[in-house]
Amino acid sequence: MDFELSDEQRAIALACEAILGQLAGVQRAMAMAERDAYDASLEKALAEAGFLEVALGDGTGALEAALVTEATARAAGVVAVGAGALVAPGVLGRALAGPVALVECAEDGGAVGPVRYGSEARSVLALRGDEAFVVEIEAGRASPVRSSFGYPFGAFASPLQGTSLGAGSGARLRAWWQVALAVETVGTMEAALSVTLDYVKQRRQFGRAIGSFQAVQHRLAECAVWLEGARWLAYEAAALGATAEGAATAAAHAAMAAKRVFAETHQLTGAIGYTREHDLHVFSMRLQALRLELGGVGAHRREAARARWGVGG
Amino acid sequence: MEFSWSQEDRDFRAELRRFLDEVLPGDWQERAKDGPGSQAQAAFSREFCAALAGRQWLTPHWPSAYGGRDASPWQHAVLGEELWAVGEPRGPQYMNVNWIGPAIMTYGSEDQKREHLPRISAGDVLWCQGFSEPEAGSDLVALRTLARRDGDDYVVNGTKIWTSYVNHADFCFLLVRTDPESSRHRGISVLLVPIDLAGITVREIPSVVGERYFHEVFFDDVRVPVACRLGPEHEGWGVVSYALQFERVGAPRYARAALTLDHLARVAAKGGQLDDPVTLEKLGEARALCEAARLLSYKVIDGRAHARPPSTDTNVARVAGTRAEQAVADLAVELLGPEALSHGSFGDAQFRMAMTAGVAVGATEIQLNLIAGRMLELPRE
């Protein structure tokens, strides 16, 4: 057991953050959102520096990919980093041509709802029943869907067909997808809380910083406990290779935390927190998208229970 | 970062489980249901601790000079998990090892270390905690128990309350005010008090939590030798703060909650309740909270293993642990329903023990204050 980053992990995180500091961030995310765009140049920069394939490196693996994913989420990167850096390598043992989108499909192969990063995707990992499929996507296949929830979405009009990864492969996709959700949620929550903490420290009402009121302090402290629990569960799930139980538990906790963090960060930033000029919405609205994905908190909780206590169905 | 146990730790856990299988009596769960302070558990605990100590398992992470094996704090964590999971057969001795011993190791004179540490390591002594008073609970520095210097003694007068385990204790880790002109943090001292001194009276405070859980302890002109003082005179708050960091994440209560939850799931499975998706969700939710509590407690142990000074990690772990315990206890009553109504039943015992989670070892509100101030750096009024 060791909770400290190794020197190599620290170096990876710093180098990744340096790129993100230059090329990502809130202003960039807002500019991308105005055009419903995907940040292809950020993805290229991350790919060229090796961060999108760090899960497959010599001496690096899913944990390092999780650190990259988390940092990108914290920097509001408009790139499918969870799917590309964590899920594809985890499920396939190799990278896919990015952007990678993850799609939950009905029996007939039709996508269930709008897909995060769907309109830009070149590759799709699709979950249909207990089977996973790799699908190559031609440009323009999915039509853009406007969403309030902080990411570009796309709708696939026709069923997705691709190469099956075999019977039972769906479980592996589901688990890695849950891990990626947990990690992206952690990075996003941390940023939302950071924005809120800065705000309550400087916003003065009733003759004092609103962050000096005990009620405000307690609510933010509770959020910090939620965040830290989600963080370590996500790291552990990645490090232990996305077991069914570990992944579902991490995703459940992250979704539970996200609900709380969304509510508290907006309540504590008041009206200014709703505005486009303020940073919070860039992160908070994403939390809603993340906590709904792949069945949401209910599905993750049920799966965690089933995985642990061995119940079928 | 590494989330797997070392081979050494895994071997230790396996050996410990074999030992527990051999040593715990068949009716142990029955004896354990009223908690570590109860009569039923007390007698067995002394023997059990001696047996553990015989294997140097009571304080494996202590320096060998003090009866330990210089093992890593992880071994002690494994020990705690396995023992709390089966209802803590060490009884109240877990307290000695968790924070009283460490406090004496850090602040004690050579005489005090020689007197107390071997006995704690050998499982041969019981301590209780003389902290709270009727007018000083969460606001501990408001304490008023006075210790007036008189020659080579302090003369102690005052009342301590909520004290657990005093009925079996040999010593009390007592907080007193040695400077009568002082207030709050300044002027506090720690005394290591033999509980059989003249002038000490103990009275149980009946509660719904469990047998002999709470007591009042009255000190009437109790003469305590100055040599019993731990650390510098009037500077005891530093000793207390240090000790509290260890107390907050000492007993791995999350391990008990997790095992209880496993038991509940088995009961629910037998009763066909796992076909209900709502029940599955509640179980999954409680499991997520237990797992978060586990990892956040591990983070504290990790800090100790890396010899980092205590941090707000302890407060975060404490809050997470409380939430997990409460969720499991609520679920126990909900799932077991009418069975939980009988005193001494499994559901009843879990519920009563978890009732104190948000108050014992420092109220949740205090933990949140500390997280807000020291971790989030939110401003004071």
Summarize the structure.
The complex is a heterodimer of chains A (313) and B (381). With 313 residues, chain A is an alpha+beta fold.
Explain what this protein looks like in three dimensions.
The complex is a heterodimer of chains A (313) and B (381). With 313 residues, chain A is an alpha+beta fold. Chain A has helices at 7-23, 26-34, 40-48, 62-74, 81-92, 169-202, 214-239, 244-269, 280-292, 296-309; strands at 100-105, 115-116, 123-128, 131-136, 142-145, 153-156, 163-167, 204-205, 208-209. In chain A, strand 3 (123-128) and strand 4 (131-136) form a beta hairpin. In chain A, helix 4 packs antiparallel against helix 5 (81-92), helix 4 (62-74) packs parallel to helix 6 and helix 6 packs antiparallel against helix 9 (280-292). Chain B is of the alpha+beta class. Chain B has twelve helices and eight strands. A four-stranded mixed β-sheet of chain B has the order 1-4-5-8. In chain B, strands 2-3-7-6 form a four-stranded antiparallel β-sheet, with no helix packed on it. In chain B, helix 4 (73-85) packs parallel to helix 8 (253-270), helix 5 runs antiparallel to helix 6 and helix 10 runs antiparallel to helix 12. Chain B is globular. The two termini of chain B are 39 Å apart. At the A-B interface, helix 6, strand 9, helix 7, helix 8 and helix 10 of A face helix 8, helix 9, helix 10 and helix 12 of B.
